[in-house]
Amino acid sequence: MSESSGIHTVSGQRAGAAPRPIPAEAGRIRDTVSAGLGDLLQGALDAIDDSLFELANNSRSNNEQNRYFEAMREIRIKRKGIERRFQHAISDLFARPPRPDELTKSRKAGKPSADDLTLVGHEDLEEQVALNAMISKAEAHFQGALVQLQARFTELYPDTDEQTPVNPMAPAAICQALAEATGDLDIDIRERLVMLKQFDRYVVANLGMLLDEANRVLVQAGIIPDFRYRGQTTTHRSLPGRSDGQRPAADTPVSDAGEPGQHPDQGSALFEQIRHLLAQRRTPTGAGQPSGGTGQVVTTRELEQLIGHLADLEFGSDTPDLSVGEPVALDLRAIVAGLLARHHNHDGQPATLSGSDEDLINLVSMLFEFILDDRNLSAPVQVLISRLQIPILKVVIKDKSFFAKPGHPARKLLNALASAGIGWSHSDEKARDKLYNQIHATVQRILEDFDGDLALFDTLNQEFEQFLEREERKAALVEQRTRESERGRIKSRKAQEEVDRLLKEKTSTVQLPEAVQDLLVHGWSRVMFLAYLRNDTEHRWPETVQVVDDLIWCLNPHRDEQERDHWVRLVPPLLKTLRAGLQGVSYRSGQLDTIMSSLKNQLAEAFRNPDQAPVMARPIPSSSTPKADQDSSDEHIDAAVAEHLARIDELQIGNWVEFRLVNGTGFRCKLSAIIEEANCCVFVNRMGLKVIEKTRTALAHELRQGRLSLLERGALVDRAMDAVAGSLKTSTA
C-alpha cells in the first residue's frame, strides 16, 4: 500500500511509542476483540474470493479475466499472512493505544491539497478516499459507543487524561490494521477497491457488537459504570420502518447497557435528594422511640453491632435451593424496632434511631420493595436476590456510601447478579444450569460467610465477573455464527420466494413448450436466485428478469417488420446469455448443448412461421428490481397496532424481551439481528442460540395482546433509586 495513504502513515507515528502496560481488563477485551475480528476478517476474505471469481467469470476479455484470477491467487497465497499480521496489529493497538489526534492528523495528512494532487497517484487517491469514507461512516454509525469507550479506555490506561485520550478500538485504528495487513498485496486498484468494499461490509460494519462487549467489560470492572453523553447515539441499527437510521439525540444518562442511568457525580446528588424527601415525610416516631424524643439515640456503631447479631439464614429458605418459594419483602423497620426494644442503655432509657439511620433503613426497605416488584427480573433470580435483604441492610449501616457510590462493591455485585439473570427463564433443569448455580452459590456464600467484612463482596464480584466473561465470550461467538447463518438463510429464502413469484407471474398466462418451462423453472431460476442475492454488489438481477421477458417474447410469432428486425438482433445475445448463465449453475451439464440446440430450433420455428398460434397474447410488464418485503403493507395495521409498532422500532440489538405463551409459561430472549431484507428480527437465548424469528408487525401484535414484554437491563440499584425518588416526589407533592 502506498505510503501516501491517510491510514498507513499512522503506523509510522506509533512505531516509536513505548508500549504501555496492558491493564487486565484491556487484556480481556483484546482477546475477545481479536477473536471476533479474526472471524469477521475470514468472512471478508471469503467474500473477496467469491467477488473476484464472479468478476472473472463475467469478464469481457481474457486479459481482464486473467487479472482477476491473478488477484485471487495472490490473496489466497498470502491469506495466512494477512490474518497473522492483522491479529498482531490488533494486539499492538492495545499495547500502544493510539490517540484520536494522531489518527485525525494522519487522515488529514493523507488528504492532498489542490497543489499536491499532481504528486499523488490516481490509484493512491482512490484508495485513500475509500478508506476515509469507510472510517467516517463507522465513526458516525457507532458514535455513542465510541465516545463511551474512549472515556473508559482513557480512565483505564495509565498516563492518559481528557487532554490525551486513547481508544484502541477506534475505526481509524481498525482500518489501519487492515491496511497494514494487506499492504504487501500485489494487486491493481480495481481489485483493491473490491477488497476494501468487502472489509467495510464484513468487518467495519459489524464493529457494533464488539464495541458493546468492550463497554460491558469495562462497566463491570467499575470503569465509569454510568455515562452521560449529549449528542446522537447511533450505537445500534434501528428496526426496519424507522424514518431515520438512528435514535433521537440523547440528553439523558447512558449506562452500561444503553439504559438511562446516572453520571457518577450525580449518584451522591440523587442519594441526598432521596434523603431529603425521606426527611420530609418522616413520621414523629422512629423504629423504636421518637427520634429526638425521650429515648436515647443509638450510635451508628451500636446499631451496627445490634444488626450484626441477625442471622441471615433465619430469613432465608429452609431448603437447599434458595430460589424455592415466592420472594418475600421483610419488614426491616419492624425487625430493627424489635432489636431496639430489647436494647437499653445503662440508664435504662429505651433506644431510638437517629433520623439518618432511620432514613437508611427505610431506603433499604423501599429498594427491595422495588426489586421484588420488578418484572425485569426472572422469578428464580428475584427470589435469590430477596434473600439478601439482611446482608444489604448490614452493608448499608456499616458503609453509608452504598447508595452514593455506583462503584460500591456490594452494589456492583447486586447489579451484576440482576443483569446476568435477565435472560434466565425458570427451568426444571436448574441443577444443570451453570449461570443459576453461580448465582445461587454467590448468594449462599453471602448468607453464610458475610461477617461485616466488605472485602467478601469484592472477592465474589471478581469471581462472578470472571465466570460471566467466560460464558459470554462463548455465547458471543455462538451468537455471531447464529446471526450470520440466519442472515444468509433468511435472505436466501426471500430470494427463492421472489424468484418463484416472478416466474409464476410471467409463465402462468402463457403456454410455453415443456422444455422451455423446465429450463426456466429448474435452470434459469438458479441464475436468478444468485443474481438476487448478489444484487447489492453486482446489480445483475434486472438482466436476469429481462432474459425471461425476452425469451417469452422471442418464442411468439411476429409479422411486423420492425419486430422481426428486433428479433434478429435479440436472439443471438439472448442464447449466449442463457448458455453462460446455465453453465454457471451447472444446469444439466452433459445435455446443455442438446437443450440449447432444441431451444434455438424452437425460436427459429417461431420466426419462420409468423402465422402460428402465439404462446401469449402480450408480454406482461414487471418490475425489474427486487420486490420489497410487503409484510407491513399487506397486513391491515390499525391505529392500535401502529402505536405498538413505534415501541417495537425503539428496540435495539442486545435488548431483552419476554414472550408469554398461551399456557401461561414464558421465555426470555435477546434481539440479535435485524434482517432488513425480510423486515424481521431474530432473537437468541443467553447461549447465543436462535429462539424465535418474527416480523416487526408480528411483534407489534404480540405487544398489543400482552404476550410480549420489553425488558430493561439498566443497573438494578440505579433503577430502584430512580423509582424511589419518583415515588417520594409524588407522595410529598
Whole-number average pLDDT? 76
Number of strands: 9
Rounded to the nearest angstrom, the radius of gyration is 33 Å
Helix content: 55-70%
Total domain modules: 4
SS class: mainly alpha
Q: Could you give the distance between the termini?
A: 68 Å
Question: Quick one: biggest sheet?
Answer: 5 strands, antiparallel
Compute the number of helices: 27
- Catalogue the unreliable spans: 1-18, 108-120, 229-266, 284-293, 617-636
- Oligomeric status of the shown chains? single chain
- How are the strands ordered across the major sheet? 8-7-6-5-9
Which term fits the overall shape? elongated
Q: What share of residues are in beta strands?
A: 5-15%
Summary?
With 733 residues, the chain is mainly alpha-helical. The chain has 27 helices and nine strands. Helix 11 packs antiparallel against helix 15.
3D structure, described in words:
InterPro entries: DUF1631. Residues 1-12 have a biased composition (Polar residues). The chain is mainly α. It folds into four domains: 9-223, no CATH class; 264-479, no CATH class; 510-608; 629-710, Roll (SH3 type barrels), CATH 2.30.30.140. The protein is 59% helix and 5% strand. The chain has 27 helices and nine strands. It has helices at residues 9-14, 24-57, 62-95, 100-109, 122-141, 143-156, 171-181, 189-202, 207-220, 264-281, 300-308, 332-341, 355-371, 379-386, 389-398, 409-420, 434-449, 455-507, 514-533, 535-538, 541-555, 561-584, 592-608, 631-634, 639-648, 696-704, 716-732; strands at residues 226-228, 253-255, 296-297, 351-352, 656-660, 666-675, 680-684, 690-695, 708-710. The protein has a five-stranded antiparallel sheet. Strands 1-2 form a two-stranded antiparallel ribbon. Strand 6 (666-675) and strand 7 form a beta hairpin. Helix 5 (122-141) packs parallel to helix 8 (189-202), helix 11 packs antiparallel against helix 15 and helix 21 crosses helix 22. The radius of gyration is 33 Å and the shape is elongated. Mean pLDDT is 76; it is low at 1-18, 108-120, 229-266, 284-293 and 617-636.
